[in-house]
Amino acid sequence: MMKTNDSRYLLRWVLSLVMLFSPSAHADTPTILVLGDSLSAGYGIAANQGWVKRLQDRLVERGFPHRVVNASISGDTTDGGLSRLPAALERERPTIVILELGANDGLRGQPPMAMSHNLARMIELSRQAGAKVLLAEMRIPPNYGPTYTQKFHATFAELAKHYDIPLIPFLLDGVAGNPALIQEDGLHPRTEAQPRILDNVWGTLEPALR
Question: Where is the signal peptide (predicted)?
């Protein structure tokens, strides 16, 4: 039989969970939503070592009130991100959205025009929800041919210019091509690369925070 004190403790615990997961629990806290793929999901490394988790730590250290929500899924494409974004916007009501998608579109050889359409729609949906949008520039290996590679790369700058939004320079700048910072698969960054990736993002994100 449960004692009175135990009952009260259980009630407080249940109420705390309700408040934690209630849509209004973070109503007054500005939110940064990161919608990405394995590069932001932290593929192959400890969950607390990825650049997105480090971003939350930096925000706290530097006195910013924002909370970070990582809605990244390994292997995701812009098509998948577009299908997931409306629910994430409704659920999190972010003030800033960081779009880090497109690499898997390129690796699968999907048309840059389709990728551009998906990213454009995500930018529009985020803006309609009242969020600032930051777009992360992605690149693919040159073995896809110069024509495809150039069209793929140009897509991000074109979208940033068209929508007048900040463009995060190549997310893996200073990381890609460095065996000491890239996992054995040749694609995914190691734990040691995460601080550099965060710095690549921070230079564009910090002005938006202010």
Answer: 1-27
Q: Which domain holds residue 86?
A: 28-209
Q: Which of 24, 28, 164, 185 is catalytic?
A: 185
Residue 14 lies in a domain: no
- Give the residue ranges of the chain where pLDDT is below 50: 1-5, 8-25
For this structure, is 153 an active site residue? Answer: no
Among candidates 55, 162, 149, 148, which has minimal Cα distance to 100? 55
Residue 117 is among the residues annotated as catalytic for this protein: no
Count: domains in the chain: 1
In a domain, 16, yes or no: no
Catalytic residue among 38, 40, 72, 116: 38
pTM for the full model? 0.86
Catalytic residue among 66, 72, 76, 188: 188
Place of tokens 């934690």: 20
Q: Does residue 116 have an active-site annotation? A: no
pLDDT of residue 26: 56
The SS3 call for residue 137 is coil
DSSP structural state of residue 108: T
pLDDT confidence of residue 143: 86
